[in-house]
Specification:
With 111 residues, the protein is of the alpha+beta class. It has three helices and five strands, in the order βαααββββ.
């Protein structure tokens, strides 16, 4: 059984937000997963859709796998580096703002 993966690194979204969407796609048929992501309103859904499409394209182009037999074997969002920013607050103070990034990995395999 052949596994193919695609990774999107340094994506400007919190991994926590991506993980909420992952459950909807994991273990499903690749085409069904794409279809489901297409109609989800979250930003993470669009990003996941892009990575899933890339994984499917990798399977088709590099490994000559049949797209109809592909399913999402694994999908996960790891923590990337955090951008630290400051926001001015009252009385001359500043507070830290953490702009989080993710590394999104999608693994597809043939049934």
């Amino acid at each position: 059984m052949m596994e193919v993966k695609a990774v999107a690194r340094y994506v400007r979204i919190s991994p926590q937000k991506v993980r909420k969407i992952i459950g909807a796609v994991k273990g499903k048929n690749a085409e069904a997963g794409l279809n489901q992501l297409k109609f989800m309103p979250q930003k993470a859904a669009g990003l996941l859709k892009k990575v899933l499409m890339s994984a499917i394209a990798n399977a088709e182009q590099n490994n000559e796998l049949d797209v109809d037999n592909l399913y999402v074997k694994n999908i996960y969002a790891d923590v990337g580096p955090t951008l630290k920013r400051f926001r001015a607050r009252a009385r001359g103070r500043g507070t830290r703002i953490l702009k989080r990034t993710s590394h999104i990995t999608v693994v597809v395999a043939e049934k």
